[in-house]
Amino acid sequence: MTSVFHSSWSARLSRSSIPLICSFLLWGCRAGQTPADPASATSETIEAPISGKKVVLATFSDRLLFKSAQHRPLIGQKYIVDYRHSDLTIYDSASLELLKIFPKMACTQSPTFLDDHTLLLSHNQNLVAIDLDEMEISTLAHLDAPLMTAPFVTDKNTIVLQYMNNIAQCFDLDGHSLWKTMLPYSASYYKQTTYAPCCDETSVYLAYPGGPLVKLNQKTGLVEWHSGAIADAGHGGATFTVKQLVAPLAQSDSWIFAKTSEHECLCINKSTGKLDKTVTLSERDQSYITDSYLYAMTSATTLTCYDTQSLEFVWEQELPYAHTTIVGQTERDPTTLFLWDTQNKLLALDAQTGELTQTQSHKLQAFDIFTQHDDLYAFNAHGTLIKLNIPSSMTS
User: Fold this and answer.
1) Cα within 13 Å of Cα(202), Cβ side
2) Which of 125, 162, 181, 308 has the fewest CB atoms inside 10 Å of its own CB, making it the most exposed?
3) CB 212 within 8 A of CB 184
4) What's the CA dihedral at 5, 6, 7, 9 to 10 degrees?
């Protein structure tokens, strides 16, 4: 009886249970594996040292995978724009839901948000506006030449374009030309970077690689001064050593801040165009500028803070690990400065004193961590964008 029962049971197992057994074994194998891309995990919980509570750092629903991993997508208050391939793709910033694909809308330069609802871009040598609420496209103006940088929107609700042929032009929001100016000198060499102009209430500041920094009257386009401060600061003059601007120009009440390819942040007087101070950066060119402070990695482990209104030294902080990245601040908490170190830790510093207030460890490796508006994002070489949850214990 026992042998008959055993034979019958074995036959049943051999015929009907093999798929189940295989599935169970496969599940066991997968359970012991670590994904090649850490972002493929559905969620991650971490211990908050101060509160002692577990918080969710990232969840599956807070992740997007892009076709191009070379550049960050454009992130606005309401929309995320992926523009680095042949199609222009729009996502909802809150839910990360795919909203619209505009086929064959490749951009020669990064688009720009005109406001929370409108996207500006150059396409087929036209200045184009897209109403993101209605997903409607309108052409504002024809462009005379390829753009050197993204369309720049001033605080006077005008659009300034900087062409490759040393011409700057200003339009109103309906696409009517307000002025056009030939800038002094010419760019001897150009390499695409994240450079962008900046403006204050009365002026627009533009620069070309190897050429001067130019101050234009925002209303008329007239040149108020042009300065060789950027090109002359340690520049040898040969074409292949032309200094590049590797970040958007920034400004305070009295100075323009220009970050160059020669590991320096130049502080240029807005009234005279003269160079007042040079902050030497570590090899990774880490700096971050707010209305009040200039934060700079002045060595592999040293974070230095300067007052942007006086250029005076404020504080210096020695960090535990070399090559720490300055992540930035969120708009909802400008008192906290976030950093990211090589041990996969998110650091929170008091922005005014430099005091290290908290450290959070996690598993996100080889990610570019950055802040945008109220949120913290991670972007990696797989083309994965994750919206991170900032634990309340890390903010004031």
Assistant:
1) 7
2) 125
3) yes
4) 80
Report how far residue 96's alpha carbon sits from residue 119's, in angstroms, rounded to the nearest whole number.
18
CB 137 within 8 A of CB 100: no
Beta bridge partners of 171: 159, 177
User: pLDDT tens digit string along 226-245?
Assistant: 998 887 775 444 444 567 78
Tell me the per-residue pLDDT of 21-65, one tens digit each, with 9 for 90 and over. 333 333 333 333 333 444 455 444 444 444 444 444 444 446 777
Q: DSSP assignment of 207-238, as one string?
A: E-TTS-EEEEETTT--EEEEE-HHHHSS----
Q: Name every residue whose Cβ is closer than 8 Å to that of residue 175 and which is 6 or more positions away in sequence.
A: 127, 139, 140, 141
Contact 349, 341 (CB under 8 A): no
Helix (H, G, I), strand (E, B) or coil at 312: coil
Q: Amino acid identity of 221? A: G
The β-bridge relationship of strands 126-131 and 136-142 is: antiparallel
Name the 3-class secondary structure at 393.
helix
Radius of gyration of the chain (CA): 26
* Three-state secondary structure call for residue 248: coil
Could you tell me the end-to-end alpha-carbon distance of the chain, in angstroms, rounded to an integer?
75
Q: Which of 357, 355, 328 is nearest to 340 (CA)?
A: 328
pTM of the model: 0.80
